[in-house]
Amino acid sequence: MPAHRLLPGDKKLEELARTMTHQEIADWVYRETGQKVARSTVSAALHRMGATDRVRYDDVIPWRVKAQHNAHYALILLRYYARRKHGLPLTDDQNARLDSWLEKIKDLDCVVTYVPDSPDGFYYVPRLAADGSSIIRQP
């Protein structure tokens, strides 16, 4: 007898992937079923289905981010920003969170920087003239 499938069917999984990150899908599965699944499980399932496009947002996230920093709020919002910038859909909640975050960055006149060997990884630092209008500090 095959193992019980924890993830939704392929059609639903693909639908979720249009507006959610792989981690958000794993969290959704937990909320819906009470069963924990790893982000990598979601990623592998989408890859097997041919539903991943391996989109990279190097223009917004130019760093190689360590796994320990992958859930940092700044990185999540940078991914939302990249999706918006590339014309990809966001949920109403994601748009609202992104708008609020961008306003905060503007008000504080800061940018996001990444320090891979630090505990938190991502930091907000004062904007320099060299940053231009970017929301990140280029490495």
Which labels suit this protein?
5 helices; elongated; 139 residues; two-stranded antiparallel ribbon; mainly alpha; 2 domains
Give the strand order of the largest sheet, numbering strands 1, 2, ... along the chain: 1-2
- Number of discrete helical segments: 5
Structural class per helix/strand content? Answer: mainly alpha
Q: What does the average pLDDT come to?
A: 91
Q: Sketch the topology as an H/E string, one letter per element.
A: HHHHHEE
Helical residue percent band: 40-55%
| Count of discrete domains | 2
Strand percentage: 5-15%
Largest sheet: 2 strands, antiparallel
| Amino-to-carboxy terminus distance | 51 Å
Shape: elongated
Low-confidence stretches: none
**What Rg is obtained from the alpha carbons, in whole angstroms?**
17 Å
Protein model, in words:
- With 139 residues, the chain is mainly alpha-helical.
- The chain has 2 domains: 10-49, no CATH class; 67-131, no CATH class.
- It is 44% helix and 7% strand.
- It is built from 5 helices and 2 strands, in the order αααααββ.
- It has helices spanning 10-17, 22-33, 39-49, 73-85, 92-108, and strands at residues 110-114, 122-126.
- Strands 1-2 form a two-stranded antiparallel sheet.
- A hairpin with a 7-residue loop joins β1 and β2.
- It is elongated, with a radius of gyration of 17 Å.
- The model has no long low-confidence stretch (mean pLDDT 91).
